What does this fold into?
Amino acid sequence: MLNKSTSIKNYFRSRLNVKPLHETIASLASWYETPLGESVLASQQQVLNDELACMFGYHLMQLSVVPYHRLSESSRINHCFSLAPAVVPSAKISTALCDVQGIAELDALPLADESIDVTILHHVLEFSDNPHQVLKEAARVTVPRGHIIIFAFNPFSVMGVAQLLAQFYSSKPIWRRRALRAARLHDWLEFLDFSCLGVRYLSQNLPINHSRYLSHSGFIDRWLGKSLPFGSTFCIVARKDKVGLTPMKPEWDSSRFLGPAPVPKRSMTARSGGAQSAMILPLRRRPKSR
It folds into this structure.
């Protein structure tokens, strides 16, 4: 009886555990090539275009489960690059490749502190085995007054309810993800000195993976808008409110030990005794040599 209960616990634990992202990113990227995945990605790209139009800087970093898709197409930042934990083969790489695609662990980014102006986290938190560390690394490399844009699946949606059931009978990694609420991510961001500027809910339509249905039901998203908290995905825009340190020039002039000390001026009368006047001797010419 004990062995049976232990095996049941192990079964549920294996179904609920999230595999490392470098093992599942290829399968996750292939899901975004399905009709439903393309519809979700299109709605996210539209929102991202609106947000990036008001953000400036020097460097933009993209951490996405679709690393070959350039999400920063509308950004005014010149240097945009993508990092992923593994190489993702796809036929769309030749047409949608980012400027730079590097390989790195997302929970230990090989970047200097406060070096990125805009960071995009596209569904990497709920598919990571340590999402809090990934968000912490993204906050570390973001400059003060920089921005982080997070995309995640909404657990309080039709697709979130379907994920609760599909994770027990489907082996696809798209259904093996963490249920990260927008309020939970809001608390994590505030702990990392970020302030949330807004939350937008996307893909209000039913998550039916059929191209004809999705093409004829686009009016549902237009009617419901992005304010109802029942969309399949949501987008959080946060700004880093940590004030950067400004180096100050040391006041060397006020230091009597290291700086030059003023010497008081003394008159000729003071040096000669005060009472007698100074005697000025005429210049003597040097005699000419014979």
Q: What stands out?
A: The first strand starts at residue 59 and ends at 64. Residues 19-240 form a domain with the Rossmann fold fold (CATH 3.40.50.150).
